[in-house]
Amino acid sequence: MSAHTPVPSVTLGSMAELEPLIQGRETPLVIRGLCRDWPLVKAGLGSDDVAAQALLEGYRGDPVIAYYLPPEQKGRVFYNEAMDGFNYQAGKLPLGKVLQTLFEQQGKPEAAGVYVGSTDLDHYFPGLSAQHRLPLQRVRPMAHLWLGNQVRIAAHFDFPHNLACNLVGRRTFTLFPPEQVGNLYIGPMELAPGGQPISLVDMDAPDLARFPKFAQAQAAALTAELAPGDVLYLPSMWWHHVRSETQFNVLLTHWWRDTPAYLGRPNNALLHGILALRSLPKAQRMAWKALFEHYVFDHDEGDLAHLPEGARGMLTTPLDELNARKLRADLTNKLKR
Predict the structure, then answer these.
(1) What is the 8-class DSSP label of residue 8?
(2) Which CATH class name applies to 5-256?
(3) φ/ψ of residue 30, rounded to 5
(4) What are the angstrom distances between the C-alpha of 116 and each of 31, 73, 94, 99?
(5) Structure letter (DSSP) for residue 296
(6) How far apart are CA 146 and CA 22, in angstroms?
(7) Which ranges in the chain are annotated with CATH 2.60.120.650?
(8) Is the pTM higher than 0.85?
(9) How many whole angstroms separate alpha carbon 247 and alpha carbon 75?
(10) Could you read off the pLDDT of 150-193 as tens digits, one per residue?
């Protein structure tokens, strides 16, 4: 992988400085050592065994979803060769069994990949929840734990903002701005590891003959190398490839969105756009693009000055919950026709 520009980093005097720092921020930022005093971070600095024991002590006991990659996959979570399935096996296992399998791989020259992703902290690890939370006041993020050995997660994006706390081991994030989507060669939308479309480019060995536009994405890429206790602020919609660098790694993500859930998921609008617009002749697509830019992407407060406030209807911003539900019901009924 070629060298990329590092993500800017800061060190804060206290946790209280975090929220004002990221409020409205649109680019990534690394906050060094912010979580260094958390119990799991301290346990991991002792040893992998101590960190694993701390996880088990905080664990509720419900089986977690675990992934196993054969050694020949070299830790890359991806598709099978036919791209009609994936290159890993998945199943529900007790955490103790997952950790046993993970530690059995340590020291092997060609280790199998072992991975547990996006596991709700409050439900599965209630004993860790209280002491492993960022003190955010304006938002209430969902906290999810990730653990495994040296695996690689293909570049993908998430709609929510994210504060990713690196608790045990080291991780490297390679980040791409949202506008680089056309240079990342995205795989199928219907079938993707983790349910989120991914880049088909192998970030360790990019095939520029097959993926020539990826060179432009590389030029725009940023890299964040996280040590235990470091936190990465990852804004909404930024593409990110994640590499776990050590034989035992634990990450805690904090996800939140800027708008209330009753406004729905933007991905649903994208799917409807594919259904209703993608097959139109180009001239009609461009006409609809102009309408979307006017009503959705480029609007500002002055656009509705010619309308009385009571006549603005669904264009009122922000849309309240009652009118959002009316709009959703109307759309649902029209989709049934």
Answers:
(1) P
(2) mainly beta
(3) -105, 130
(4) 25, 17, 11, 10
(5) I
(6) 23
(7) 5-256
(8) yes
(9) 11
(10) 999 999 999 999 999 999 999 999 999 999 999 999 999 999 99
